[in-house]
Amino acid sequence: MAIPFLQDTPPPVDPVAALLQLLEEEEERVVRLWSKRIRAETYELDIPGRNLRAPLRRLVDELVRLLRDRGRDVLVLWPEVVRPHGARRYDQRFEVEDLAREFKALEEVLLYVYARRNGQLEPEVATFIVELVGEAHASAQASFARVLRTEEVRFREAAVMESVLHHVEVGILLAEVDGTVSFATPPVSRLLGVPMRAVVGSRSQSPLTAVLTQVNARQPNGTPFKVADMPFMRAMKERGPVRGVMMVVERPGGGEATLELSATPVWEEGGELAGVLQTFTDRTEAANKTKALMSAHDEVRRLQGRLLQRTRTQALGQLASGAAHALNNFLNVLRLRITLLRRDSKPEHLDALDKTVGQIGELVARLQEFNVQRTEEQLADVQVDATVHEALELARAELEQGEHPIGVELRLGQPCAVRADPGFFRELVVNLLLATKERLGEAGGRVAVESRTEPAGWVRLRVEDSGTLYAEEEMTRMFDPLNREAGAPQLSLLLAVARNQVQRWGGELTVENLPGGDGAAFVVRLPLASSSEEVAAERTAAGRSTTVSPRRFQQTRRVLVVDDDPDNARMMAEVLSEEGYDVMVAHSGDVALKLWEERRYDAALLDAVMPDISGWEVARELRKRSPHALLAIVTGMDVRGQNRANLALVDAVFRKPIDVGALDEFLGQSESPSASGGGGSAGSVPPPSS
């Protein structure tokens, strides 16, 4: 008799056959879902060219083969197949947690695919899958751990460390507590330039002393570097780290190396000192760059100190002085016109206008106070040739810049000295060299610097270039600080300041074209230091003799007006002619000297600043030819600080705008200004008394 409920019970499922059937029919799907789940769980990147599925497919292929051939023995055999997989994952830098996630993902995929394909998941199959994957995971994890602890890994790490120590550019030295150097890496030998055996193994300081002597070890300041200066010796003594000790050694093949040494004590667990680690680091390149930067910094600082030490006062003062000079020329024309108009117009209106001109003149005088407040000069006997060499070194880098550097030829004469401020004179030569470079431009060229002594106690310094010739008008305006031509203001201001400086030293600065059309030259003429004091003494003596024995004049009738500004010269001549004087005009120093030779004059009114020859030079020549003539400088510049030898040449200095009454009083005197005081009248500045 049959039992009804037994007839309804389904037959038991063979999990091995069920899993085998699943993998044979759905292997590709299982592999794909497994790799996808691994990528999500372990944050794997989808790198082009890298096949993540290949190793997983091999594992599944082996599982299928074992299920087909060995049945339930697969629980033992497949974990052994999976064991190397753990070692591979170690090589691929997987973490142990990543390995667990990987087999957890396989378990979930097998259960999911089986249940979805069959519509249900039998307990026997689920249990089999969980057991099989768990055994495989345990086997892979054991392999992972074994590789992690293996001697092979420790050997590899030691090998890597040894390779690093051999190839890194930091040398490491180990010193024991008794001072023995027990270990040193190859870079120590390379950096010091001596064999390793010369450093390692000695218990005395003698071998290390010999090593330091052999490589000529020294401190950065040049003092010898001793064993006691080694950081590991100091670290043992001070019981603390020592950082940043610098040592300079000579390379075996030539050259020097700068090494940075540091030491760190090594302590045992009980607090006892076990030894000291000392490092050697090559800082040669950094040291060379530091030296170059410091040298460049010093060079820039010296240039800045010499070229810009008076930027706030003197540069502003020179600019104000140049502007005042130009403005005073216009004011002078205006005042002279007022003098003429006074005779035909209502005096009260013209008086007011004249008062306004006077106020403008006072304002200009206050502007010129900037120039008086410049840095005081320290006059000394300056060697010309030595100063040229110094200036050339300062300007060399600038001259050699660009695709076409400027070559400099020195044609220096015998050693001689001038009386000047050393810094200002060196700055003058530098400025002339740089002005020449600016003139030659990017095409480059050659520059020749020549010094030569001249008769009558003078020194001539020429800076010649191979550029194009100057036009006559260009030379006339070159020293005008208010030159408005393109590119000219900076150069003109620089040259105006330089000429003013040279004139203060009793000399002159001019520009001229070289014969044959081969270029142009700046020419500086200064009195020799040995003769400058004699010249000053001679002029002072002349001034004293004038005071004791005043010159007597016939009534002054013939006056020579010398001014390169046509309006100033013409108006001055017109005003003096109205006063009854016989006036002749010259627009340059050369013309003035020629006129003086053709006809003797009783007096000369000389503009101080002219493009060819300064008024002071003209006065010097006229004083030689006519010692008793009345000579006066007429200028818009401030003459305070002017060379005393120059001031001794003239009888008075008139500031523009000119007080016509004071000028008439000066010209109408019958004695020298020193005796009568005519030179000290309003609108004029008398030369200094001796």
Summarize the structure.
This protein has 690 residues and is of the alpha/beta class. The protein has 24 helices and 18 strands.
Task: Explain this structure.
The chain is α/β, with parallel strands linked by helices and 690 residues long. The chain folds into five domains: 11-149, Globin-like, CATH 1.10.490; 168-282, PAS domain (Beta-Lactamase, 2-Layer Sandwich), CATH 3.30.450.20; 311-372; 380-527, Heat Shock Protein 90 (2-Layer Sandwich), CATH 3.30.565.10; 542-685, Rossmann fold (3-Layer(aba) Sandwich). The strands form four sheets. A six-stranded mixed sheet has the order 14-13-15-16-17-18, with helices on both faces. It has a five-stranded antiparallel sheet with strand order 2-1-5-4-3, with helices on both faces. Helix 2 packs across helix 5 (96-118), helix 12 (311-342) runs antiparallel to helix 13 (347-372) and helix 20 (589-598) packs parallel to helix 21. It is elongated and about 160 Å long. The chain starts with a helix and ends in a 5-residue tail after the last strand.
